[in-house]
UniProtKB/TrEMBL annotation:
It comes from the Bacteria. GO terms for molecular function: acyl-CoA dehydrogenase activity; flavin adenine dinucleotide binding. PANTHER family: ACYL-COA DEHYDROGENASE, ACYL-COA DEHYDROGENASE YDBM-RELATED. It comes from Caballeronia glebae. Keywords: Oxidoreductase. It holds the Pfam family Acyl-CoA_dh_2. This is Acyl-CoA dehydrogenase. The keyword Ribosomal protein does not apply.
Amino acid sequence: MSAVLESVTPSRAANDAPHLLSDALLDSIGRRAALYDRENRFFSEDLSDLHDANFLRASVPVEFGGLGLTLPQLLREQARLAARAPSTALALNMHLYWVGAALHLYRQGDTSAQWILEEAGAGKVFAAGHGEPGNDLGLAWSSVKATPLADGGYRFDGRKIFTSLAPAWDWLGVHGIDESDPQAPKIVHAFIRRDAAGHRTVKTWDALGLRATRSDDTWLEGAIAPRDKVIRVLPAGIPDDPFVDGILGAVLPGLGAVYYGIAKRAFDIAVESAKQRSSPAIGGKTYAYKPLTQQAVAQAAIELASIEALVDRAAQLWWTAGYGEDEPWIADLLAAKQHAVDGALRVVNLALKIAGAASLSRNHELERLYRDVRAGAFHPPNADAAHEVIGQAWLGVLGKV
């Protein structure tokens, strides 16, 4: 990661600035979440409203039609959105991390991905084509074949999974492996237009939680990325490049913010329930007076505070280039994400305990949050891979084992 980034003046300069997403908008979005979940339906109305609220271009620099929010400011809005509609927030994190990757380069004076900022500023939607069945190496490898073309473009063939925003994307960012030189395979990062030939969506998404993301499969069957939409061609293996760094610097804190939002909502619902439910065992007082309820609320509150602090710290350091050259920044970003998804699960479990058996009902919001929060462990890098990388980074053996 570059130690010095160019200054970008945001339109909102402090974390205590007014919220971009109004409470009224979030209430409207929240009322739709249960129906989307029940019908396994994409969040089309949410997307339209968030377009109108400028959320999708919130972190795009002002000069490209955006609002210029900093990463910490953006995460605050993501968490608020996730509290009311986890699927919507999670899916849009895929769009926002492409903007974040391009912004990371732009702030260093690298304009190779500036067109992403321009397209996002113009209202275009980006989705991520990184997931692949059986690929536990992530961006270090690919099962999708990338074939170089004479004009510098690439043809892509293979299957992508978990393509959130499948019904709505304008640009799909993909990676594939170029093995034209078997002794030196390369990973190709590029973008495919929606109106290009050679890709199709297969409706496979019917999951336990996060159902409204519509993370269907995408088959690439000769899809062409032209030369000017090929962002990077890197040696296969653990990537060492500012563009990939930028992806990680956006997606990992973004995931942390989403799962913090889920946990905060579950906590708020549970606390309100404890204040309302009466207990004959203590003379009709509410459960708020029960010592075990107080203990569970305290445990959840402490967990929430630690999640928020760690995610915010990682975002602040990334945005300000606050990591020293000898600091394992990737370990810090992964720790924030991993602590958020693990801690959010603990908070939601405690919330159900606090709220009681009513939370098991399919009509109860906590039941949906209980299902949604369980996806956190599987976002790449998954829990096992994240712990490996964190340990290797601190031990100084990352990339050497």
